């Protein structure tokens, strides 16, 4: 990589790190793992910087998701620590919604990598099923079913969520 | 959006906001450089350590222009037979067994025959002794070398002198000793060690005489079939250690034992045909493009190149008159040709399999570093 490309790359990382790191953190739930994941994805991006056609950010995101799934596969036998999420304490000064969000975050980190990736893509990045499908390399129908299964699994992991309706339960 | 989806949306955003954004630009660039360097080093180590089959011939050529593929004097006419490589069964063709290979699916590890199937071992370079069937290894980048435990695949390391890095490994023809060429991690100093396989004892020697140190490519030091050392001597003025003028023959005590007039690198005793009248080398030929380094068959006595082999993955002797030559055909297949001494294809096999076509996330693809030995 020549010095001009390096400058461009560093400028891109400086400008977009906060957005990309949020994705990495949502996927891993752990500061160090998120840094490793993003650094690895950025290194791959740097290696191909001059060959990337169009905006680099979608390219980095795609690598992030695929790396995350493959890392998880490699490390699936090992426990990966997750960010310290406070226990739900009855006496704490938290609103009911905030407690629920923490419960969901906790359950989210117990999902499999693909289901977690689908939820992050859909609800953090607000991507359509078709856009998620393009990144994950599957059909939009698969994204729909993965999302539905992921939400169902969340309700299994956190029974408190059973009072909340899913899309299928919303009256039409 | 349902209530649950709304809640998940908020929770995912909460979670995403918990991290502290680092500035990873410089670290990512450094990691990219390390990965690039590692890839290049792997190619260089593979080239220098004699598993030249792991490196496409084009990578070894000295100019930047694409090299034409050598054309055998008569093209093969036999029907192509399809074969499949899988990890559960040692792959054998024409009485030759594939004893090790590399696949991006397990990169940088190798697959070796242990317990009647291919097992993955975490070593960048493995070498099997045809006498005992044991594997020895260089681990690649952390300077370790040793024998591979036959059951577990673990490393039984030798004690390498401090500051030295093993660069090449060759079994002596009788399987009793192993030659390690040693580089120095801090200064350009040549050296080698001879390992007694039975005891694991290692006798190291540093080349302190600058004239002797500069005499040739010490990293490619190897055995000849008689147990002498062979040192490739480079063409004057070449800086990339690719073009070999001939080979200096030395005793293990470094006494001059003559010259082998062959302009090629060899991979130890197995490079010679069983009757030792010919040998396979990676090199040039008089009258041909001096930058066209390819696998050739040489007459051992005259040093004359008698055939150029159409194989970028390597070549092995089946018997005195036939060779097995491997070439990558497409991203998902490898061609194995049975050739005569003139390089003519007598039979051709097309091999596929998951490891043959495997694609690495690092960008490399396909099987490499094949090594065949006579089965049984």
Characterise this structure.
The complex is a heterodimer of chains A (172) and B (376). With 172 residues, chain A is mainly α. Chain A has helices spanning 3-28, 31-47, 56-75, 96-108, 113-124, 129-136, 140-157. In chain A, 38% of the residues are buried. Helix content of chain B is 13%, strand content 37%. Chain B contains five helices and 26 strands.
Distance between the termini of chain B: 67 Å
Biggest sheet record of chain B: 5 strands, mixed
Write down the Rg of chain A.
18 Å
DSSP strand tally of chain B = 26
Query: What kind of assembly state do the chains in view correspond to?
Result: heterodimer
Please state the CA-atom Rg of chain B, rounded to the nearest Å.
Answer: 23 Å
Structural class of chain A: mainly alpha
Name the overall outline of chain A.
elongated
The N- to C-terminal Cα distance of chain A equals 55 Å
Counting DSSP H or I runs of 4 or more residues, the number of helices of chain A is 7
- Whole-number mean pLDDT of chain A: 75
Concise description?
The complex is a heterodimer of chains A (172) and B (376). With 172 residues, chain A is mainly α. Chain A has helices at 3-28, 31-47, 56-75, 96-108, 113-124, 129-136, 140-157.
């Amino acid at each position: 990589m020549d010095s001009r490309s390096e400058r461009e790359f560093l400028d891109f990382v400086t400008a977009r790190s906060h957005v990309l790191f949020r994705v990495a953190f949502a996927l891993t739930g752990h500061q160090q793992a998120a840094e490793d994941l993003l650094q690895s994805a950025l290194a791959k991006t740097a290696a191909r910087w001059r060959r990337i056609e169009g905006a680099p950010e979608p390219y980095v995101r795609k690598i992030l998701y695929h790396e995350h799934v493959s890392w998880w596969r490699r490390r699936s036998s090992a426990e990966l620590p997750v960010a310290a999420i406070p226990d739900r304490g009855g006496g704490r000064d938290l609103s009911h919604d905030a407690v629920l969000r923490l419960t969901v975050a906790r359950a989210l980190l117990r999902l499999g990598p693909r289901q977690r990736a689908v939820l992050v893509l859909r609800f953090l990045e607000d991507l359509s099923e078709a856009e998620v499908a393009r990144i994950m390399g599957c059909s939009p129908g698969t994204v729909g079913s993965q999302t539905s299964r992921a939400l169902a699994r969340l309700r299994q992991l956190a029974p408190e969520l059973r009072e909340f309706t899913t899309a299928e339960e919303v009256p039409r | 959006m349902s209530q649950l989806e709304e809640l998940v949306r908020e929770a995912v955003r909460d979670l995403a906001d918990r991290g502290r954004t680092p500035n990873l630009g410089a670290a990512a660039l450094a990691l990219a450089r390390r990965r690039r360097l590692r890839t290049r080093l792997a190619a260089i180590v593979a080239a220098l350590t004699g598993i030249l089959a792991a490196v496409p011939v084009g990578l070894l050529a000295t100019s930047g222009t694409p090299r034409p593929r050598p054309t055998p004097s008569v093209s093969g006419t036999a029907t192509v037979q399809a074969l499949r490589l899988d990890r559960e069964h040692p792959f054998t063709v024409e009485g030759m067994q594939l004893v090790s290979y590399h696949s991006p699916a397990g990169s940088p590890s190798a697959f070796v025959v242990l317990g009647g199937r291919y097992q993955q071992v975490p070593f960048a370079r493995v070498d099997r002794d045809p006498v005992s069937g044991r594997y020895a290894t260089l681990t690649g980048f952390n300077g370790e070398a040793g024998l591979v435990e036959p059951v577990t695949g673990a490393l039984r390391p030798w004690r390498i002198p401090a500051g030295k890095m093993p660069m090449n490994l060759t079994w002596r023809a009788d399987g009793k000793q192993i030659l390690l060429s040693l580089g120095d991690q801090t200064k350009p100093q040549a050296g080698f060690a001879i390992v007694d396989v039975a005891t694991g004892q290692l006798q190291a020697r540093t080349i302190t005489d600058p004239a002797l140190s500069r005499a040739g490519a010490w990293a490619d030091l190897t055995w000849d079939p008689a147990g002498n050392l062979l040192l490739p001597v480079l063409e004057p003025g070449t800086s990339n250690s690719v073009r070999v003028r001939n080979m200096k023959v030395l005793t293990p005590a470094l006494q001059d034992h003559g010259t082998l007039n062959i302009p090629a690198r060899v991979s130890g005793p197995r490079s010679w045909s069983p009757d030792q009248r010919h040998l396979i080398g990676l090199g040039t030929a008089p009258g041909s493009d001096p930058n066209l380094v390819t696998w050739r068959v040489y007459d051992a006595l005259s040093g004359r190149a008698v055939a150029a082999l159409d194989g970028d993955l390597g070549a092995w002797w089946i018997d005195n008159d036939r060779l097995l030559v491997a070439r990558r055909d497409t991203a998902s297949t490898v061609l194995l040709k049975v050739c005569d001494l003139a390089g003519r294809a007598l039979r051709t096999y097309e091999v596929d399999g998951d490891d043959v076509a495997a694609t690495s996330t690092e960008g490399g693809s396909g099987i490499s570093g094949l090594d065949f030995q006579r089965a049984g």
